[in-house]
Design goal:
mainly alpha, single chain, Glycosyltransferase
Amino acid sequence: MILDRRDLLKSSAVLAAGAASGCTTLVPSSRPLPHFYNDIEERTFAFFWETADRSNGLVPDRWPTPSFSSIAAVGFALTAYPYGVDRGWISREAARDLTLTTLRFFWNAPQGPAASGTTGHKGFFYHFLDMQHGRRFRRTELSSVDSTLLLLGVRFAGRFFDGNDPLEREIRSLSEALYARADWTFFQSDGRKALSMGWHPETGLIARNWDGYNEGMAVYLLALGAPVHAVAPNSWEQWTLPYSRVWRGEGANRHLAFAPLFGHQYSHIWVDFRGIHDAPMRAAGFDYFENSRRATLSNRAYCTANPLGWEGYSAEVWGLTACDGPADATIGERQYLSYSARGPVHLPDGRDDGTIAPTAALGSLPFAPEIVVPTAHALLRLHGERIYRRYGFLDAFNSSFRDLKVRSTSGTVDPVHGWVGRDYLGIDQGPILLQAANHRREFVWRFMRRDPVLRRGLRLAGFQGGWLER
């Protein structure tokens, strides 16, 4: 891998030129990245391409630790395969065949209310599936948000594979059928107005709803746009109802806050929120893309200030989100976590144990490239092969966790450099790759802006302006 400092400086200067304004504008359809970023993208793509099961299309939640499949990771994979075609890493035929295997599996997999032996219910799917047989993994929930991420990948595949050969036509047919089968009203079936986070056959709907501000935005957009089992048009009001409780900051820093950055990234991978506004954002005077930009800057500012005094935080090395961690342990006055959502402690759902995840910064590339590109370079320069290997960046690292007497089952501990996670996680690999695709060429956005389902969902949610009017 070649790290070209001149490429980095040149690209960063171009990227920074239009990033200082608080107003979001539609950027050019092609934006440069330094040469070293090619290697990050190709290695990250290889995670999805090489770990997918060729018999059913399932992608593991993590690797190399033996793992169940994450349906959200499959959604990221279905979106990644076309990008691999676009970049010349794989052929269109190879991407088509694996995509079709995946869609056929989910269409034919058993559905029903039984607690075992099924893959899903009411057109949705369990959060985790057994990699080999594709059935519910243990007592995991029927997940509304993870099914949404899967279905976004399904819909993207239907938009990309637009050829006339029978296999591409079948992809489009299955894409529409899988989406139409999902009964979104099921997550309101106990009379609630908002959408439940999920369902267990043993206990029913999960009490907690999708509302406020987090990764659940796209759940409502797909639920509103559904051709058969759509929710009521005023359901978006349930999503925005708690907004008054999550505004943070003043002036150019004011934004809807959610501490882990993944909540500001997931929906944006498929939905181009630049220049379109619902009622709350019209009142605020900026769009959700700008909101994610401000959240990204806030995350970096917190890590730069480093109020808890963790090792390794800086203006170049930053990024808090949901990720693996060293252990659930207390060492002296320090408390550490295993897998957990992380973010600035003064924000909703914020906790900070010194663990940095590369996906936090790199998944925010389109929002603030002028700070993300130097961070990607700094991670490679300062940490190198400790955190960057076969499939790109390992999930997370913690330079403060150095106690060899405290056992970590999720990675390795060095008495000088600290803890590094063992695994790559599909839901963290996805934002790294696909946000680079959007930044470079609006790759995912270009196809999804033409999706009538997404356009209908956005309009029913009250979005106006920008590309939605064309």
